[in-house]
Amino acid sequence: GTMVPGAPAADAPVRVRGRSGWLLDELDGQFDLLVFAPVAPAVLDDLQRTLGAELRLRVVAQRLTDDKADVHVMEDVQGLVRQRYDGAPGTAYLLRPDQHVAARWHNVDTAVVREALARAQGRTGS
Questions:
Q1: Where do runs of H (alpha helix) occur along the chain?
Q2: For 100, which DSSP code?
Q3: Were 95 and a residue from 32, 62, 69, 102 both cysteine, which residue would form a disulfide, CB within 3.0 to 4.6 Å?
Q4: Cα 92 from Cα 111, distance rounded (Å)
């Protein structure tokens, strides 16, 4: 796909808690991790617990299921987010505050996300 590291993030329509909007408007100027559902709850919990202070976890789902209060879930109402990001289940994108792709994975893992975040912030891996 075209969403390679360094590329500007593509926009697409989403719905958040019943409100229609746009993916890029849901980003708030910090590092964001987009994860495409379904993803095991234990993986989401580990990402949130380990990296929650450094980045914002955002889950992209085709339709809403249980919306955990501490996880920002965006409904991909037209399937365009999935299409534009080649968003198979478990795929993840680390987005920089300037809305460019810092890294991407087909299977999200906390350790590799932490390492990529450190690189993107100009720190060495931990």
A1: 41-51, 80-85, 110-120
A2: B
A3: 32
A4: 13
